[in-house]
Amino acid sequence: MTDVATPAALDPEALASRVEELLARLEALDDAGARAAAEGLVAALMELYGEGLERIFRALGDRDEAVARVRDELVEDGVVASLLLIHGLYPIDLETRVRGALDGIRPYMHSHGGDVTLVGLEDGVARLRLEGSCDGCRSSAQTLELAIRQALEEAAPDLEGIEVEGVVFEPLPPPVPMGTRLPLASSSRPRAAWTPLEGLDGLARGERASFEVNGARLLVANVDGTLLAYRDACAGCGASIHGGLLENGILACPSCGRLFELARAGRLVEGDEPLQLTPVPLLPGDGGRPAVAVA
Predict the structure, then answer these.
(1) pLDDT of residue 285
(2) Which end of the chain is more exposed for a tag (fewer CB within 10 A), N or C?
(3) Would you say domain 9-188 falls under CATH 3.30.300.130?
(4) What is the pLDDT at residue 189?
């Protein structure tokens, strides 16, 4: 199989940030004529690149298995996928990707006694309904809504917004036509898979354990008999939170002292900062083998 590799010298995230920085400087120009000319140049270049991409994928088509593999690998590359999304060339429609993302987190939803239904998709906004025991439960709903957001951002970075049971999430930044924004599709990153964790059957209430999954450090805590998983990083200072004091579901960062309530999706207990730990989907599992999904 042909590999579609990213050159070692190219950092797509840094390049995208550089593009956005330059576009912001362009929009801030006082010379309206120069600004209009530069914006026209950017638009013309994006039209040219879009036409080129369309011709490339039209030529690839479905001629044979080898060509189809090359096309599929291109589509799965995050940078290429982003360009395809911007130009409306991505081969999998938005609704299919949204439904696939929801199907992927459904086992996690079921583990919380709940489910999620796609009510509709209009003007790029997905309308969802939480069902089961998670409906009306503040802490459970908050954690599940975060899991839903993460799954949808992974599969559908071009989604413009999410509405859940009348609660409107902060809109996802949409890709603006003509290249004024370059959203890197996350398909270039490893996709989340359920990874079993060993040794949690004896984790008592108020205790926590540390794991490394897919290169990510995780903290798993037993809060009132429920296992909760978070990235092992303080939302305020970025330090490890594993060694912090855990009492009544409140975890203190050992470095900066900030307090986070694990049962409320890791939200900051007090203070005006909008800080929150990063929760990780966790399935209880059987026989002491819970599993987490880390991309």
Answers:
(1) 62
(2) N
(3) yes
(4) 41
Q: Which helix (H) or strand (E) holds 283?
A: strand 282-283
Under-50 pLDDT residues of the chain: 1-8, 135-137, 171-191
User: What's the CATH class of domain 193-294?
Assistant: mainly beta
| H or E element that contains 39 | helix 32-60
CA–CA separation, 275 and 19 (whole Å): 28
The per-residue DSSP string of 90-159 comes to -SS-HHHHHHHHHHHHHHHHHHTTEEEEEEEEETTEEEEEEEETTTT-HHHHHHHHHHHHHHHHHH-TT-
State how far Cα 239 lies from the chain centre. 22
| Cα 183 to Cα 179: distance, rounded to the nearest angstrom | 10
Strand order through the sheet with 267-268: 246-247, 250-252, 259-261, 267-268
Please name which of 295, 26, 11, 34 lies closest in space to residue 180, comparing C-alpha atoms: 26
- Residue 49 DSSP SS3: helix
Residue 46 CB coordination number (10 Å): 18
**Angle at CA of residue 220, ends 215 and 223, nearest 5°:** 165
pTM exceeds 0.70 for this model:
no
Residues 6+ apart with CB under 8 A from 36: none
Identify whether the C-beta of residue 227 lies closer than 8 Å to the C-beta of residue 290. Answer: yes
Question: Which residue reads 């000319």 in tokens?
Answer: 37
Domain ranges of the chain: 9-188, 193-294
